[in-house]
Amino acid sequence: MNALRQVEELLPSLSRAEKAQLLRLVVQELDHAFPGIDSTPCVCGGEACIVRTRIPVWALEPSRCLGISEEDLLRSYPTLRAEDLANAWSYVRSHRTEIENDIQANEGA
Known about the structure:
By secondary structure, the protein is mainly alpha-helical. It has helices at residues 3-10, 16-31, 57-65, 70-76, 82-94, 96-107, and strands at residues 37-38, 49-50.
């Protein structure tokens, strides 16, 4: 039996307070998820990357800061889509310190 089915079967037996707590846990877990961005320990050192690619988010941000257009970025990275860039910029806004640290660590390497 998969985990979702187990939750569905348990849900009716939970109190309102337990359901509220479960909902808070789910929202907290989703808060750390960004669509189109994935961090996998064995891919790019676990840095946040665009899904379907090995392009780290930190690698795109310096180009944007230099004024390179999204159109030019999409030409430079043919595997990227406009949606990927929107997801990357959202991730950068929410993880500014992480991205700045990644840029500094990788530009100095």
